[in-house]
Design brief:
By secondary structure, the chain is an alpha+beta fold. The protein is elongated, with a radius of gyration of 24 Å. β16 and β17 form a beta hairpin. The strands form 5 sheets. Strands 9, 11, 12, 13, 14, 16, 17, 18 and 19 form a 9-stranded antiparallel β-sheet that branches. The protein has a 6-stranded mixed β-sheet with strand order 1-2-6-3-7-21. It is about 30% helix and about 25% strand.
Length: about 475
């Protein structure tokens, strides 16, 4: 469809560009360079910093030169996920969404509304010739989804504005004043393969049909994690048959709930009927346990081949550690009601060719919270003989209920829409915490339109809420106070 035909066209035409130019994490250079050229053709000042982030500056409109400078911030990259059987090359193919019941949706891939809509709103401000605003900078960061690399590498002293509007949250009418920090735990181990025992049948076990979602914003919903479901199944099958594992592959992104997982296993052929009956019972149990959140979970066993399997001692050690590894909510916040404080996502597991790798993403509203849980996970895997490292740690964004920018957003929202807005703290990683550490005097708020299913195929954005977000952004920029 022609996305640019949607209203407001000044926003959607830029989202069309973001759908047309591929932008996986760490591969945003083509898009950044295109946008840099676009801005320079409009006579705007551009800066690419040492981390590769793009900053575009636009002078105040006449009569607004004395207003406080505002930074509009979003990230260029997107999470790349596709349903099994969907042929889509995220490095070369454009995203082609459809319009359904007022929502723009990518039916079999992620859409990239996270954070393409935020970037498109910032670009619309740069493109507009008829809105009032003071000095504006649009900061477009790289690599947010794969480790916050752009924000972590942002140079102190480069931004000129004193207020920052992060356009990277997904609940219209809610303003965010704080977020979780986080860190990755990567564990690696080798194992010694053994020949496949004689008389064993080989099957690929598949866990599929899970909804998936954002490993922070959706962690409290109790959705299934395919990695944990399949590891549990293997653990239980070891009590039923002489199960031998040849390989395991589950999850594709650190910050997405694993929707699918696959294990090639072997067992005595004489146990085939017994195993099939157990799989049916296990699927029924999973659907019962996940009722209301992931009722479509499926367990399948298909013929496969393998020449080697893990040695029994290695298999026991590796899968006991993975079975014990935490996933889900660790603790709810005692300071902010109804918000997750600390959690972990068992995001990616790969076991093949004598090597094991797993990635776990730990989040917390308290920096000490994610540091402590990460330390516990490190200890668990070290006891199982893994080499473990932590990487990509980033601070949370401490809430400031007295924020003048938050008060301005609330006031303008009430004037524009005749209702009160909400205020939240999100259990997801926004770049505000990192930027705030580099610019401690920066006043910050995050907002955005309604986005559902971020980080999973079927991601969608409500078209009407994008129009409202554009209306609000224009009104806020016009109401920014004069610099003291």
């Amino acid at each position: 469809m022609n996305i640019a035909a949607l209203e407001p066209t000044i926003v959607w035409e830029h989202f069309q560009t973001l759908c047309d130019i591929p932008r996986p994490s760490k591969h945003e250079a083509a898009l950044r360079d295109y946008l840099k050229g676009w801005a320079e053709l409009r006579g705007l000042q551009t800066v690419v910093d040492q981390a590769g982030n793009l900053i575009v500056r636009k002078a105040a409109t006449p009569g607004m030169e004395d207003r406080v400078g505002v930074v509009l911030q979003g990230h260029l990259d997107m999470v790349c996920q596709a349903n099994t059987g969907t042929v889509h090359d995220f490095f070369n193919d454009p995203i082609r969404p459809v319009l359904k019941d007022g929502w723009l949706i990518a039916e079999n891939t992620t859409l990239g509304a996270d954070n393409g809509i935020g970037v498109a709103l910032g670009l619309a401000v740069l493109a507009s010739d008829d809105i009032a605003h003071g000095p504006v900078e649009v900061l477009m960061t790289l690599d947010e989804e794969a480790g916050m690399g752009g924000a972590l590498g942002l140079e102190p002293g480069l931004l000129q504005g004193r207020m920052l509007i992060n356009i990277d949250t997904e609940e219209w009418g809610e303003f965010y004043m704080g977020c979780a920090g986080g860190i990755d735990v990567n564990a690696r181990r080798s194992y010694q393969p053994q020949p496949l025992p004689a008389g064993f049948e080989v099957r690929q076990l598949t866990v599929a049909g899970l909804v998936g979602g954002h490993s922070g914003a959706d962690i409290h919903l109790g959705r299934g994690n395919a990695n944990k479901v399949l590891i549990r199944l293997l653990h239980e099958l070891e009590a039923v048959t002489d199960l031998r594992v040849a390989s395991f592959n589950g999850g594709t992104a650190r910050n997405a709930l694993a929707r699918e997982a696959f294990a090639v296993v072997a067992y005595p052929a004489a146990d085939s009927d017994k195993l099939a009956a157990y799989l049916d019972a296990f699927q029924a149990l999973m659907r019962f346990e996940l009722a209301g959140v992931d009722e479509g979970v499926s367990i399948a066993a298909n013929l496969a081949s393998a020449d080697e399997v893990l040695a029994p001692a290695d298999q026991q050690t590796i899968f006991r550690a993975l079975h014990a590894a935490p996933h889900g909510v660790k603790r709810m916040s005692q300071r902010v009601g109804g918000v997750v404080e600390t959690s972990n996502n068992l995001g990616v597991i790969s076991i093949a060719d004598g090597k094991v790798f797993t990635n776990l993403m730990v989040r917390s509203l308290l920096d000490s919270g994610f540091q402590n849980l990460a330390s516990e996970i490190v200890g668990l895997f070290q006891l199982a003989g893994f080499e473990v490292e932590t990487e990509g740690g980033y601070p949370g964004w401490a809430p400031n209920p007295a924020s003048p920018l938050l008060a301005l957003f609330q006031q303008v929202y009430r004037q524009q829409f005749g209702a009160d807005s909400g205020v939240q703290v999100i259990h997801a990683g926004l770049e505000c915490g990192i930027i705030g550490a580099k610019y401690p005097q920066m006043d910050m708020v995050s907002f955005g339109p309604n986005i559902r299913g971020a980080h999973a195929p079927g991601e969608r954005v409500e078209v009407a809420s994008v129009g409202k977000a554009w209306q609000l952004l224009q009104a806020v920029l016009a109401a920014v106070p004069a610099s003291a």
